[in-house]
Prior knowledge:
eight-stranded mixed sheet; 16 helices; five-stranded mixed barrel; 507 residues; 2 domains; BirA Bifunctional Protein, domain 2; alpha+beta
Amino acid sequence: MADSKQLETKITDKISEQMSVRREKLKTLRDVGQAYLNTWRTDISSAAIHAKYAECEKEALDKLAVEVSVAGRMMAHRVMGKSSFIKLQDAEGQLQLFLNRDALGGAEIYNPTKKWDLGDLIGARGVLFITKTGELSVKVSHIESVSKCLRPLPEKWHGLSDIETRYRQRYVDLMVTPESRETFRARSKIVSLLRRGLEDRAFMEVETPMLQTQAGGAAARPFITHHNALGMDLFLRIAPELYLKRLLVGGFERVFEINRNFRNEGLDATHNPEFTMVEFYQAYADFQDAMDTTEGLIRDIADGLGVSKVTWKGVDIDLAQEFKRIRMDEAVFECRPDLRGHANDKALLATVCLQENPEVKPLITWKAGHYLLELFETLVEPKLQQPTFITHYPVDVSPLARRNNEDKTVTDRFELFVAGCEIANGFSELNDPDDQRGRFMAQAQAKDAGDAEATGVDEDYLRALEFGMPPAAGVGIGVDRLVMMLTGQHSIRDVLLFPHMRPESVK
């Protein structure tokens, strides 16, 4: 422990020394009026330069005399007397700059550039050429300091290896970790493909309230805030579901929303208190249609990324094959054949549940369905490696889903699992206001019995149902988990630009 603290102190002292030197250089820039200018403009990116000219022959490129104006962060600087090479990094990649004292206009202009630090933002203008080693570069005729970097970048060969620091200082992580940049580029594309896929299926994008007078639409503990002007508590939404279904009542038959939800729960590899979901609802459709749409969307996104197989959590996942579908009770019976025919035997399920998972803490309001779900999560969920829809969840644990026509103890609900992780949840929507009121009352009783994730009775939503909601199906997909799967990331923090962390003292 002492050695660790001593090392941390040495690193802090070293950083402080380097920052002092950099601040002296900043003072010099301030003295001549060249600190933090906002006059530089670019006309092309590094990626566009490589895409357009990488295949050019040296002589052909010289004849073209292509002049470019670029800017970015200095990631490497090699000085060789009257000449130097700078590795410039912009938003799309890297590009080499070649500086020569005479070409820049003499030592008065060239010499100060030799004192620039790694991480400094600079702008350069010049002509494209190919070096003797065959690298496409810019022969600089004019260069400026754009913004001074006062803190040293992580060491070149070690990068930003500390995981916690990568999450806390994502701005540095993005500077020095190409893999992180690619992950977030992929995330942006995945969201874009998701939106396009829904729009192509005639869904309309909408926005619903983030601040709600009553949290609902999911089983989760909400964040509570207070509105001073109205003198009332409000909840950050845990799901947009009940508002989106109000829109079905209003006559919009296909709607979706991609936005943030907030749940006051723990942090782990697949949970963050603030996360992104897409929810979409379709009138005159059932849970079978919803599964088809969900599977099609995921496959379309994978195709858009140019992949049909991904590796996630050490599992090779084939997204091209048809996703398996199996009832929850059947999945449990495959693990415990002795329970077949006893899906509604609360006493037996409770006994077996406690045998399989002694840490489970049942509430007094639990019914047979709660114990069946616990058995599923213990025995089955970790084994679901390839994409699998689990269907027919018990009514007891599905307060917003429509009862199945043949078996009134279960609902027309599904969840999609990949590599043991839930990706999506959907169902045929419950549009019977009387049945819904009864489900809400059961939730309210569970809440009174100590279930912090249970919700209450939403009278306005019930009023909306009384105007008549068309038969419909809805789905919620965890966008962060979808990105994790498609990019092979093991922690949700690796696909969130700024994941939640405990506060720290900035040094």
